[in-house]
Amino acid sequence: MEGAKQTQAVSVDELFYMPSVVVAAHEMKSPLALIRQLALDLEASVQTAEQQQLSRRVRLMSEQTMQLVADITRAQRLEDSLFACEPINPRAVCEEVAHELSPLFREHRRQLAVQPRRHTPLVVANRDLLKRILVNFATNALHYSAENEPVALQTSMHAGKIRVAVRDRGPQIPRAVWRSLAATQQPLPQPDSRRPQSSSLGLHLSKQFAEAMSGRVGLVRHADGASFFVELLPSTQLSLL
Amino acid sequence: MSRVLVVDDNTWQREHLVSLLERAGHSVKSAGDAIAAMEMIDDRAPEVILLDMLLPGANGLTLLHELRTYEDLARIPIVVCSSLELPRRELAPYGVVDVLDKAVMQPRDVVAAVEGALR
Questions:
Q1: Which of A18, A151, A187, B77 lies deepest, with the highest CB count within 10 Å?
Q2: Which H, E and C letters describe chain A, residue by residue?
Q3: How does pLDDT run along chain A (241 residues), one tens digit per residue?
Q4: A40 closest CB neighbour out of B54, B62, B106
Q5: CB contacts, 8 Å: A5 with chain B
Q6: Taking CB atoms and an 8 Å limit, are B16 and A41 in contact across chains?
């Protein structure tokens, strides 16, 4: 650049160094962000209800996928201890998730509801990670719940710990599938034929997030569906961490 | 009518932002990299710059550094528009007055940020 003074050398690596997985995730995030912006423009300008629906669905899908991409980045950063835990009201997080996902569920003609509970103890968690776990569970449940059966966000006590669960009423997950999920820590190589839209990526990331909070994820199989839960310590046990 | 410079390496993103700001009544130019941006700035300084940080070759941070070395150009307010989650406070010394996250921003947010920077 003509006439430019000598500038202080900037090390790009120092500012922008990222592991390759994070770089890949970012490369996916940029076009998704643009798709979302273009869909927003279309939503604001198109005429027919069908066109509006199409652009709305494009936007919702891009937002959903961007969140999953962001989760990949989060999972790579767990070791950096960037996600501090504190006492969190899990019911408040459930309500936040229900509110955030209601447009997506509405688009799929499904419902997501927070099951009432008189008293919900606080849990030791990172709000961001807990929310992402529940969003992943609820998004997974979205595809396997019937129209007239709402997906429920529930909290409960279990052996001194607190479970925050997403209950859907849909096809049963085979026990072997879940064992594979738990044992290998790798995404399933093939989607289960009874849950064909699941690649388990969201579930695997949720498992990592839960473990970063000294918790665990689990599954309760029902004849008419499943409950995916995250189990966390109550805040009364914060000193144990 | 204010002069805005949009700097983004993605052609469609650039065109989208240009269109958005022109519809809001601004005079907009665009550049796909830091060198082209600097040439446009040398030619006629914009009143606000909408800047993506990840650019080919010299990145957005390099451009910010470059602008700071010139007293007149250092006064141009910058709105960073990126899919990176960037800390606004740390970018403020570079003349960055607002940071937009491409993943969540609405068209009105872009217009509001640019017009806010002009005030």
A1: A151
A2: CCCCCCCCCCCHHHHHCCCHHHHHHHHHHHHHHHHHHHHHHHHHHCCCHHHHHHHHHHHHHHHHHHHHHHHHHHHHHHHHCCCCCEEECHHHHHHHHHHHHHHHHHHCCCCEEECCCCCCCCEEECHHHHHHHHHHHHHHHHCCCCCCCCEEEEEEEECCEEEEEEEECCCCCCHHHHHHHHHHCCCCCCCCCCCCCCCCHHHHHHHHHHHHCCCEEEEEEECCEEEEEEEECEHHHHHHC
A3: 444 444 444 445 544 555 577 777 777 888 899 999 999 988 888 778 888 888 998 999 899 889 888 888 888 888 766 788 999 999 999 999 999 999 999 988 889 999 988 788 999 999 999 999 999 999 888 877 777 788 999 999 999 999 999 998 876 666 665 666 555 444 444 444 444 445 578 888 899 999 999 999 998 888 788 889 999 999 887 766 5
A4: B106
A5: 69
A6: yes
User: Tell me, what's the ipTM?
Assistant: 0.74
Question: Are the beta carbons of A32 and B103 separated by less than 8 Å?
Answer: yes
Q: Which residues pair with A222 in a beta bridge?
A: A225
Of the candidates B10, B16, B106, which has its C-beta nearest A30's C-beta? B10
